[in-house]
Give the backbone structure.
Amino acid sequence: MITVPSFISHLRTMADGSLRIQLDTRELPPSKVAELYSQMKTEGIFAFAASRDEFTEQEREMLNVAEKSINKERTQSLSKDLRDSLYKLWKSDESSCGDFEDFYEDKMEKMIEQILRRSQK
């Protein structure tokens, strides 16, 4: 975790609804600057405290929960993930013939049948 004294100097709403937060710091030692540069373009958790006191145990727990939540966020639906995975399987399977839509339909029907058989036991 990188901690530096800072203040929020500018907020800007982006076109996609996200928020750009500009932070300004005091002059930092070169080691801190290098540490910050090493994290460029890296997603992380932003936490701001108005004082230099360490975060409380409750705040640390909130940060842990937020981090877990970010790691679980999906960029697309589970059904889209499944379709993409089946497409990769179709592309890698040299014995598969026909187009992907036929392959997809066949695999989905087999999975549905398997699930229904298991639910009837």
Q: What stands out?
A: The longest helix spans residues 100-119. The CA atoms of residues 6 and 100 lie 53 Å apart. The two ends are 51 Å apart (CA to CA). The chain has a mean pLDDT of 82.
